[in-house]
Each structure stands twice: as C-alpha cells, then as structure tokens.
C-alpha cells in the first residue's frame, strides 16, 4: 500500500520537485557568476570587507526560492485531493486517515529536505572557493531560516487546504504568513540562530494540527 502511495506521489510531484532543484542550481550559477565578476573587479579583500562590515548577503537570490518551492509542492500535492473532499475516497483505503496524511507530509518534507541538502552542499562548495571558512559558515547558517520557511509554508499550505472549516483556514493561514514573514526579515548574519529551535517546534505542531482536518473529513465535516 505504501509503495503504491509513494509511486502516486512521485508521479504527481516529480516535475515541481525537478523545477525546484533546477531553479536552485540556476541561482547557484548566478551566485558563482556574480562572485567571479566582483572578485575580478574589486579584489578579494575589498569584497570580504564589504560582506563582513555591511552584512552583504551575496546569496540573497535564494531568499524566496524555498518558499515558492514549498508552496508549489503543497498546492500540487494537496489541492487536487481537497477539491470536493476527494480525501474521503482515500479514507476507504486499508489505512487510517492519520497515517495517510502523515505519509503525504513525510513524502513532501523529506523531498524538500533532500533538495535543500543538495543545494546547500553546492552553495558551500561554491562559497569555499571565494571566502574563508568563517564567512562560509555564517552564510550557510544565515540561509537556514529561508529553508525552514520553505518547510513551514509547505506544512501550512497543506494544513489550510485540508482544513474544511473556513475560520480555521484563516487562522492557520495568518499564523503561517507571520511565521514566514519573520524568517525572511533577516538583515544580519545568523540573526535568528537563537530562535530557530522554536520554529522546529512550530513545524512539529503543524504535523499534529493537520491530523484534525483529516479526522473531521472522515466524520463528514463540511
């Protein structure tokens, strides 16, 4: 049963996942091109000082890519199932709604994490060619809130689309919006390091919250 569900999700989401990976690597190529030009024009030391002194995010092109990727994946994965309560058809499978929804979420979150890991490895490799390891480390850590925002918008969108009650849709959507908005306001290196743990807890809460819409849909909620 899980193998069939996995194949279904792969078939449904493969193009958006490939697009997310492709756009991310286009962004990496853009960063490489910009750094090569800047170092050739201004020199390494001057550019390093600019990054350190003014907290110049030479990787800022990545800010919205994880968010768009997570949102697109959730829409493609959950909206078709939510139309006309199609989830109820899935609930007739020999698997309860909680395990079914958790499987969908696990597939999406793991897919996003794998792409983010591959992209981060590429980013660290490129940055290491131009910067000392101290700058590479703080740059990678400063990108983490954007990747976390991508996971939060994925979980938030999945929860909102699965929720049958409009009032709760608005509450969950508002909570997701403000959570993401804070994460993309980063202006300094490692600005949000001290609160990232709270966002990990928030991710766990979303995984729990999405079980309630599934339960209500099975019971016939409108």
Task: Tell me what the structure shows.
The chain is mostly helical. It has one domain (2-218). It has helices spanning 2-42, 44-54, 65-82, 87-90, 97-128, 133-162, 166-183, 196-209, 211-218.
Concise summary:
The protein is mainly alpha-helical and 222 residues long. The protein contains nine helices and no strands. The protein is elongated.
* H-E order: HHHHHHHHH
- Describe the global form: elongated
Secondary-structure-derived class: mainly alpha
Q: Provide the residue-averaged pLDDT.
A: 82
Ends distance: 28 Å
Radius of gyration: 20 Å
Question: Which properties best describe this structure?
Answer:
single chain, 222 residues, mainly alpha, elongated
Give the helices and strands, then pairings:
Blueprint: H1 2-42, H2 44-54, H3 65-82, H4 87-90, H5 97-128, H6 133-162, H7 166-183, H8 196-209, H9 211-218
Helix pairs in contact: 1-2, 1-3, 1-5, 3-5, 3-6, 5-6, 5-9, 6-7, 6-8
